[in-house]
Design a protein that fits this description.
By secondary structure, this protein is mostly helical. It is built from 13 helices and no strands.
Length: 240
Amino acid sequence: MITAYVRLEVRRTLRDPAFVISTVGVPVMMYLLFTNLLGGQDTAFRTAAMIGMAAYGTLGAALSLGTGVAEDKSTGWLRQLRVTPVTPRQVVTGRALTGTVVVLPAIVSVLLAGALVNSVRLAAWEWGALVLALWAGSLPFALLGIGNGYRLTAQTTGVVNLACNLGLAVLGGLWFPVALFPDWMRTLAAYTPTFRFAQLGGSVSGGHAPTAAALGVLALWTVLFGGYAAVSYRRAARTV
């Protein structure tokens, strides 16, 4: 049942042109713009920027699920799910799994731009491990978007997700290196899921395993956002 539900939601999401443009086109454009204007021939910068922009596209794709969730409430889809055997946990799980699928185009497109346009060179296993790390690390952001969608209206969800997207991207160092931040912002960034998310990719591209701190912080945010999504769904189910 969950598999069928996920398949349906994936098709619905990937057919949306706005989703493709914002989560694939924009990160690729920003990556090529930043690296060719600011990075010159610095391979390390181009690699780090590639990971940051892939993470940024993934973040936007995962959060955008919340807008679809909010629209489902207004169209009555959530009401239809309530009369099916699907439990609240299965609904949230299905939406989260949908997020882990629809983020793949954002990841792959930026990595291809890095390899084909900016001549980023990694070993074959590093490319595969990088995709896997970014794919797995997207889960907490999908849960955050889902929670916002179930708790808020469609219009408010779009605004809140945009604020989360920009705030987490900037504070987590996806646009600018954390080394440029003042001391207090560097300290705060270390506790953000986006900083640790990008750190997963940095570890892989550097040829070593992710740090325990990165995995621990991401795991904590996954639990928190997962609880938020489940509570928001139960609340929506009682009021819709």
